[in-house]
Amino acid sequence: MKIKRLNKATRYTDFREMIYASAKKFRKKHAFQIKIGSGSYRYVTYSQFKEDYRALGTHFLDLGLLDKRIAVVGKNSYAWVLHYACAATVGVAVPIDRELSPEDMRHFIVSAGCTAVCADKEILEQLEPLLSSELLLLSLQDALRPVPADDTRIDTVPIAEDEMSVLIFTSGTAGKPKGVCLSQKNICSNIFSTSQIVKITPRDKTLSILPLCHTYECTLDCLLILSRGACIAYADSLNAIRRNILEYRPTVLVVVPALLQLLDKRIQAAISKNGPAKYQSKFKTSSISKALRDLSGFVRMIIRRKVKKSLGGKIHTCIVGGADLSPAVVEDFLALGIRALQGYGLTESAPLLAGNNDFYFNAQSAGVAIPGVELIIDSPDGAGVGEILAKGDNIMLGYYNDPDATADTFRNGYFRTGDLGFIDRDGALYIKGRMKNVIVTANGNNIYPEELEARLLEKETIGEALILPGNDRNGDTCVKAKIFPNLDCMTQIIGHLPAKEEIQAMVKSIVDEVNNKMPDYKHIRVFEILEKEFEKTTTRKIRRCGMNLA
User: Fold this and answer.
1) How much is the pLDDT for 397?
2) Strands 446-447 and 439-440
3) In the beta sheet, which residues pair with residue 91?
4) Which stretches of 67-193 are assigned E, i.e. beta strand?
5) Could you tell me if 307 and 415 lie in one domain?
6) Is 511 buried (19+), middle (13-18) or exposed (0-12) by CB count in 10 A?
7) Contact 528, 484 (CB under 8 A)
8) 443 plus 407 within the same structural domain
9) Cβ proximity of 73 and 93 under 8 Å
10) Is 486 among the domain residues?
11) Mean pLDDT per 10-residue segment, the chain (550 residues)
């Protein structure tokens, strides 16, 4: 399906062009809202952002960093964005996850051949003993010096559209990071495509939550926002999100499904506890969307207003990606007057390939291909399921120093995503799971773990779930579930902290319920209840490796 109507958007060739154009169009508009104390903030205008970019970029040139690899490590901040943009302009930006151990950071810094490291002061202190004395260490918190008016070197640094400007080491759920080489053309084409189908205006504000070292956050919740004249604020931490939403009152959120599911459960619990007494029981037994449907228009309006107020009062859109999202959660937020636009993409596609948007919305799917991207299904089976292949200007240049992996991941000019899915008559994409995660039974049936995990997670007493191959009593391959229960929810339901036997019984009843809705070959035959959460990536994806599989 080709989207016929599109929003007006500007195509930029590189970050510098975008920053300068935004400074001209939005001059005194706030680009960033930065907390400097309790209840006090510093605002950076688009004009100031341009001046800071020119000052830091010129400083990088003075340090001899032209065409060099520059690592950027730190918490989400204005300084991080500034250093990333300048690093990508004068050389190659290498964003590194600040949650990694200092030893792992060092490994990526050395592997990338970095000449300089820009990081938060506490991270530099940890890295300094591990790094060569020849490496230039720069604090993200260092003050900027104004650039002389006649020094225009940063304005004329050549930026080749098809050369690597950003090198990202994927965190990966399989435990084997790869270096993804992206050009500014890759990223800017993704900004252009997304702007055409999801309208962001200078009246919008986002609360940046996910790590900026990932393309999902950096492209869609930073560079896209800055191309549209909107404002960026930063969450203090994952635990402070609820407070920060009330504090900054964002209109747009870019999140992973786990966060939206948590919000959904909290909203439902709050309505069933604090909503109109007459209707509380409805919200205990039904989803938010179903419960609201049975209420009068006036009561619905009151509940919506209260929920929106608890989310700052202005939020209208959530962009969701990174994993599968239950359609029930999408329907709940839609019933509350908030769009949850689920999309699909990878680091290698800078990142977006498909998405629900202003012109196409289907809660069951990952949306349609974004403008400029072609999606096809390779070798579909009888149900139309096969590997998703993609082509477009946003597809990476290749994997860093790995020509074999690069050659293997392209077929006839199409990028092999490694994900399985199908496309319906409307052009909507449905994700079934990762090729390498598929469980094949002795009878040759394919089972997609993500489908069963989503079914389990629909139950509020299940905190986390991982489906993997197991063995039944005969030694044949079967479906096994590892489950981390939501003890708070179980306690609330039964009125006391559950004993092991009670947890076992509650989990078994849910597994039986899920099995009853599935064909026999998909049944969960074995399950294990965990006492600790699964190990996760910094975008809250459960790792399918290491201790999680033990």
Assistant:
1) 98
2) antiparallel
3) none
4) 69-73, 92-96, 114-119, 136-139, 166-169, 179-182
5) yes
6) buried
7) no
8) no
9) no
10) yes
11) 84 98 98 93 98 97 98 98 98 95 94 97 97 96 89 96 94 70 98 98 97 96 98 95 96 93 88 81 86 90 91 96 87 96 96 97 96 97 95 98 96 96 96 87 78 89 92 84 93 91 94 91 92 84 81
**What is d(CA 228, CA 19) in angstroms, rounded to the nearest whole number?**
10
Q: What does the alpha-carbon distance between residue 396 and residue 538 come to, in Å, rounded to a whole number?
A: 22
pLDDT at residue 172, as a whole number: 55
Report pTM: 0.87
User: Is there a single domain that holds both residue 169 and residue 303?
Assistant: no
Total domains, the chain: 3
Cα distances from 458 to residues 325, 453, 464, 498, 510, in angstroms, run 10, 9, 10, 20, 10
Instruction: For residue 174, give the DSSP letter.
Output: S
Q: Can you give the pLDDT at residue 443? A: 67
Spatial CA neighbour of 227 closest among 411, 56, 88, 24: 24
Residues found in the chain = 550
288 and 147 housed in the same domain: no
Which of 293, 241, 238, 303 shows the shortest CA–CA distance to 268?
Answer: 303
Rounded to an integer, what distance in angstroms lies between the CA atom of residue 259 and that of residue 366? Answer: 17
Say how far apart CA 492 and CA 482 lie, in whole Å: 23
Q: How many CB atoms lie within 10 A of CB 387?
A: 18
Which token pair is 218?
Answer: 């950096």
3-class SS letters over 439-464: EECCCCCEECHHHHHHHHHCCCCEEE
Q: Are residues 393 and 460 in the same domain?
A: no
Q: State the pLDDT at residue 474.
A: 80
Per the structure, the complete domain to which residue 147 belongs is given by 15-197
First to last CA, the chain: 43
**Prior bond of 276 cis (ω within 30°):** no
For residue 151, how many C-alpha atoms fall within 13 Å in the half-sphere facing its CB? 14
**Is the distance from CB of 264 to CB of 291 less than 8 angstroms?**
no
Residue found by looking up tokens 């092999």 in the block: 416
Contact between 447 and 522 under an 8 Å Cβ cutoff? The reply is yes
Does one domain contain both 296 and 186? no
Q: What is the per-residue DSSP string for 413-438?
A: TEEEEEEEEEE-TT-BEEEEEEGGG-
